[in-house]
Each structure stands twice: as C-alpha cells, then as structure tokens.
Request: fold
Amino acid sequence: MVNRYSLFILLWGILSLQAGIVLAQDSFFQFSDEIEVLSAEAMLNEESIIYIQDRWKFEAGDDLMRSSQDFDDSEWIKISTNLIEADLSFLEFEGIGWFRKDFMVAKELSGKPIALIIDRHLGASEIYLNGEKIYELGEFSTDPQAVVSYNSKKPIPVVFSGDEIQTMAVRFINPDYSETGRLMGYNGFRFLLGDWNVHQNQNIDYLMQWTRSNMFYIGLLLAFSIIHLLLFVFYPGEKRNLYFSVFVAIVAIFTYLMYRVELAENTVDTLLFIRFLIVTEVLVLTFAARFTHSIDKVFNTVYSNALVIFGVAVSVLLWNFPEQLIWLRELAVIFYVIEILRSILVMFYKNRGEAWVLGVGVLIFIVALLYAVLINFNFISGSVQIANMAGSGALVFSMSIFLSRNVAHTQKNLQEKLSEVQILSEKTLEQERISKEREIEKRLLEAENSRKTTELEEARALQLSMLPKKMPDIPGCDMAVHMKTATEVGGDYYDFSIGDDGTLVLALGDATGHGMKAGIMVAAAKSYFHSLVHQTDGSAMLKRMSKGLYNMNMRMMYMGMMLVHYKNNSIEISTAGMPPALIYRKKEDKIERVTIKALPLGSSVNYPYKSRSVELSEGDLLLMMSDGLIELFNPEREMLGMKPVEEVLKHSAGESAEKVIENLKDLVLTWSGGKEPDDDITLLAFRCNQKK
Reply:
C-alpha cells in the first residue's frame, strides 16, 4: 500500500486537504454492513484481488476468548482496521485490541488456497480462522518491549472450508501507536484477498520492478546533480548550478527514502525512514526556493541565504522532535511553496523568456501530484510510483533545461557582441591581421618543415637500426658492406643469417622510391626474411615474400631482392627485380655477370622466381649492389652503368672486400662530383678464400 509519504510533496500547501481525505476515506467508501461473499468471480479483475471492506468489528484490550467463532461480538463497534486518528479519538486504545470479520465463501473457493495480501501492517498480530490460530505476523507479546513488528508484503495462503460463514479474528498490538499515528496517519493494518496462483510470486516481481525503476530514477537524478556540480566547479561564478545540484541530490535522497519506506519490514525501520523523509522534504523545498531565487538578481541575497538557514534549522528541530513539531513542518512546507510560486510569478511579470520552462515543469508536477492522489484514493487506476517520478522528474528536467537555455543564451549574446567588435575593428586592423597571418603561416611552415625533417631523421635512424651492426665473421670468408642513403628515408636493405648447418644467407633489397612507405616496405621485408630464411630455398622464399608484400596493398610500392645462399664454396643466387650480381674470377681475371630477370616482390602473387647455382674458387669475389650505383648521375646527367663498376673490380684484384668497397665509394664520389646521390646506394662484397 502506498501511503501519503509515497507522494512527493513539493506542493503540500496546495493540497493541504489531503490529510482530511485520508481521515475520511474509510467511513466514506466502505459502509456496507452485509456479510461479504468471497467468490472466484470477485477476483476477475486486472489485479486478481478481492477488495474486502476495511471496516471490521473491534474491541480494545485483550482476551483470548475473542478468537472463538461463537464469541458474541454484537456489541463491538465497527471501525477501519487502519486505526486512523479519527477512529482513535473516541476509543480507549492503548495499543492492543481485537478485530473480527465474517465472510461467506463460495463453493468454488472452498478448500482452495486464497492469498491473504498484507497491504499494510504495523506492530504484530495473530490471525485466527474459525477459532484456530493460522498465522502470527511478527512476534506477538502483551509486553510491548517484547513485540517484534511485521511489515512484509509477501502474501500468505488461507484455506476456507465449506460455504458457511467463516470468521476471521485478528489479535493486534502496536506498541508504537502514538508515534505512527502522528507520523503516518494510521496505526493498524489492511488485508486484501486475492488469487493465490497469481500473487504467490507477484511480490518478488514487484520488488524487482520497484528496485529497478527507483535505482534508475535515482541514478538519473544523481547524474543531473553531478553534471551541474561540475559546471559550478569549472565556473564558480554561476552559483545557480550549485543550488540546483544540491536540490537534485536531495530529491535523489528523498526518492531513496521513499523506496526504503516501501520495503521496510518492521515498524521501527519504517518510522526511522519516515523521520528522515520529514527532514528531507523540508530541505528539498529549501533548496528549490533558493534555486528559484538565484535565477533573478531582483531577490535579495541576504534574504535568500536566510531561507536556507531557516530550512536547515527547521530540519534539525524536526529530526529531534518529529511528533511535537509536526505543525512546524506543515508551516515550513506552505511557506516554501509560496516562495517558489512567488519567484516564478516574478519572473513571468518581468517577461523573462525562459520562465515558461519552469512554469511547465511546475504545472506537470501539480498534475502528476493530483493524479497520484486520485490513484491513492481509488478514484482512478494507475501507478502512484510512475506519477511521482513523472512529476518530480519533469520539475527537475525543466530546471535543468532552464539552466542550459540560460547558458546557451548567454553564450549566444557573447558571440553576437564579439561579432560586432570584429566588424567595427575589421577595417583598421586588416593590415595588421594580414601581416600577422603571414607571420603565422611562415612560422607554421617552418615548424612543419622542422617536424618533417625531424620525422625523416628519426625514420632514417629507425631504418639504419634495422640493419646488422656488423657482418658475420666466418673463417675463410671476407665480406664488407656499405650503404649510402639519399636525402630522404631510403628503401635499401641488407641482412644476413647463418643456419644451423652453417649455411650463410645474404640478402640485399631495394624498395621503390623513398620516404616513410619505403621504410615500411623495408621493415616488412626484414620480418619476412628472418621468418622464412631457413625454411625453404631462395626462389620459394621470394615467392612467399612477394605474396605477403602484395597482400599489404601499399599501392605502387615494390621491393627488389637478391638472396645468396653460401655453403662450401657453392652459392645459389635468387633475384627479384635486382641488378645482376658481379663475380670476379681471380684465375681468369674476368667479370661474370649473373643476370636473372624477374618481377620485384609485391607485384605478383604467383610469379615463378628462379635461382642459379654458381661455384666459387679461391679468391673469387661476389658483388651485390642496388640500382642506385649503376643509375648514379654525373653533373652532365649521364648514368654510371656497369662497365666502370666492373673495371673497379678488376683493378681491385687481390685486395680485401673492405678495400673493394672503398674503391667503389671513390668511384661514386668521383662520378657524382661530390653531389649527394638521388637514390640509395648499397654494396655488399663477399670473397671466398677457402680452397676446394
């Protein structure tokens, strides 16, 4: 059962007649003296509930003989089982008494379980059916200190037998009746009957739905509160965000307390949470009023702050004396409601464009509150919880929209002012602006060039870091390597690997172009080389590398590659789009070109790469090179070609591989005239000194 504290009472003063309605509802709506008939047809409604009358026969005091079905209760008075204040005003009730009620049970319900729904219950009670005790709610005791109250809403089964008159007697005690009457408006209980098959699991579903909806709504309120608190933190001058944040946070606390009141399982907890609610409702109205005051500077700040101090003081007094000062709460609520309405009316009077937003929120809240009251007194059907959330949510949302619109309006005005200033100063500042723009462009260009230079240097350093620090030291073999990169990041690459069987594999590659893409291609080739080098022969390895680079889809980027497998004076040369390998034969004193035509890596997936095996004699020298050497231009734009390179090899007969590289470097310097090369130049010289 949702009591009057389940209503969010921001406009309590407007609906001050609510208490009178609560006091009168039992005598007004439930007046029949006829014995009620319990039938299956009576449960054929949306809730599957028989709304039995609250008016039972009652006698204060305690006597176990009153549980008997034959007990004469003809002299007892009929009052509401809720034991509202109006009933107790003419009773000598000291917290304990008996209720009795007769039912006529239809045959179709005889012997079948019917759900006894505990709509509300304060204190403890014993339930007797036809003289037999069937349930004890809580722990009943004639000693008030030993009573354990019960407030669970879980339905319990009751079985009526026969179609004769059935008598239900309830032995009831509420040791806290004085406090519950003042704070809650009632002291007793209310029972309903319903379809057991429907209601046995409905309580769990209700609790889950109640928890989900409340937690979602509380989370939404806290989100609003945090957002506007952060707005205040970032801009402390806008204190409206602070007052609104505190207001919404207290609304969230109020909502949580209503949630806990609904789920409290004993009277002590219920009273504690209601005590919190009484204090919280005053604070909600306090900060709602302070927020509306902060909207317009017409309100005196000292008076507005005094409202907050007064609200806090009233809350402290109500916490300590909730029963004695209930009148103070009502007075404070009415006062703050009037103050809130006055603030909104002042804004309307001053034609504030945004005031209608708050007005709409207040209007929706009033409609929702009236709707909840009508539901609570069974005038209409619906969910009080949804009505409360819709009303308070509309109020909070309208306040948030007001603040957001106000910030947007301020920002818009500021932008308009700035536009006016820009237009007025445009002619006089045009030249200065242009000169500054040019200066900025110059600096940006310099910064961009500096950035690109730094990136290229870092990329060149990265490329060089991927190359071997030194060539391997193999007995009987002499080798040397040299790389000269162009001004940008180059695409040349060399590497080596020695297998477990002693096979030496040399690699020399040349990616198309320069820059970052060439560097990426080199990094990918290095990765493939070390992954595949000892898994297969040279031609198969090139084919697999080509497929991998092709799948990278780097668009017009390819990789030339030469692989040389060396073991026991025998070499196997595999190439993909590289210049011929040059072999200087010491015995014959001649140069042998090893030319294998093939597409660069990455240009085709299934190209049939080929290899050629060559025997090396003692003193023979192998030169692997990128096309940057033979395509080197002199100042007359003539290419170097192969012949000068072969001449250097012949003139270097008998010299070390390192010396051969030095001679070729001199050739590069002489031919280019000291100019930096346009392409990378990579040289790898390998000499075999082993005898067969």
